[in-house]
Design goal:
The complex is a heterodimer. A five-stranded mixed sheet of chain A has the order 1-9-8-3-4, with no helix packed on it. Chain A is mainly β. In chain A, β6 and β7 (about 70-75) form a beta hairpin. Chain A has strands at about 10-15, 20-25, 30-40, 45-50, 55, 60-65, 70-75, 85-90, 105-110. Chain A is built from no helices and nine strands. Chain B has strands spanning about 5, 10-15, 20-25, 30-35, 45-50, 55, 65-70, 75-80, 90-95, 105, 110-115. In chain B, the strands form two sheets. In chain B, strands 2, 4, 5, 6, 9, 10 and 11 form a seven-stranded mixed sheet that branches. A four-stranded antiparallel sheet of chain B has the order 1-3-8-7, with no helix packed on it. In chain B, a hairpin with a 6-residue loop joins β4 (about 30-35) and β5. Chain B is an all-beta fold. The radius of gyration of chain B is 13 Å and the shape is globular. Classes of the chains: A mainly beta, B mainly beta.
Chain lengths: ~110, ~120
């Protein structure tokens, strides 16, 4: 399984765009990238996933460069309610289990 | 629709006791997962089911832990002779296909405290 590295914590202010970058240098050809969000006392919630280039949904965008050794989760115009832990995962095509790291604690300040 | 439901939400037990944690997945989801999360850490995989069978139980820490899913829907995680180190939040998740890119839907977990 590819190991991921992401910042332990980030602070931002309401209304700003937040970019969280994740490194996954040994990602394999069939692996894809997925991000989950977790609020206190709740289970993780799927945000977005992608294989290459750019993916956008109603919540976030995911940017993946051509070499796929990193990815960036972009949250537009964050609000206080976006304060949460964000997990970057690399999922092997042949595997079923997800391997979570420690995630990035995003704190949005007023 | 209803999400993944876990009961109880909190469980306090004494060291050495037996506990059962229940998970009701989203209706129709064939795959079911159990994870354990300690404070400040990401969830740690325990076991996953495809239908009624345990397809991968490599994350179970020892033989005190066991999980069943007899009818391919509800699952129960069973812990024998609990130890204080078993204290954690136990998360259940389900997904609707076995496709590798199906997202997991998590419940809010059962917080287990062993005193």
């Amino acid at each position: 399984l590819a190991k991921t590295t992401q910042p332990i914590s980030m602070d931002s202010y309401e209304g700003q765009e937040v970019n969280i970058t994740c490194s996954h240098n040994n990602i394999a050809t069939n692996d894809y990238i997925t991000w989950y969000q977790q609020f206190p006392s709740q289970g993780p919630r799927f945000i977005i996933q992608g294989y290459k280039t750019k993916v956008t949904n109603e919540v976030a965008s995911l940017f993946i460069p051509a070499d796929r050794k990193s990815s960036t989760l972009s949250l537009p115009r964050v609000s206080l309610s976006d304060t949460a832990v964000y997990y970057c995962l690399v999922v092997a095509g042949s595997a079923r289990q997800l391997t979570f790291g420690s995630g990035t604690q995003l704190t949005v300040l007023p | 629709g209803a999400g993944v439901s876990q009961t109880p939400s909190n469980k306090v037990t004494e060291k050495g006791k037996y506990v059962e944690l229940r998970c009701d997945p989203i209706s129709g989801h064939t795959a079911l997962y159990w994870y354990r999360q300690s404070l400040g850490q990401g969830p740690e995989f325990l076991i996953y089911f495809q239908g009624t069978g345990a397809a991968d139980d490599s994350g179970l820490p020892n033989d005190r832990f066991f999980a069943v899913r007899p009818e391919g829907s509800v699952s129960t995680l069973k812990i024998q002779r609990t130890e204080r180190g078993d204290s954690a939040v136990y998360l259940c998740a389900s997904s609707n296909t076995l496709s590798y890119n199906s997202p997991l839907h998590f419940g809010n977990g059962t917080r287990l405290t062993v005193t």
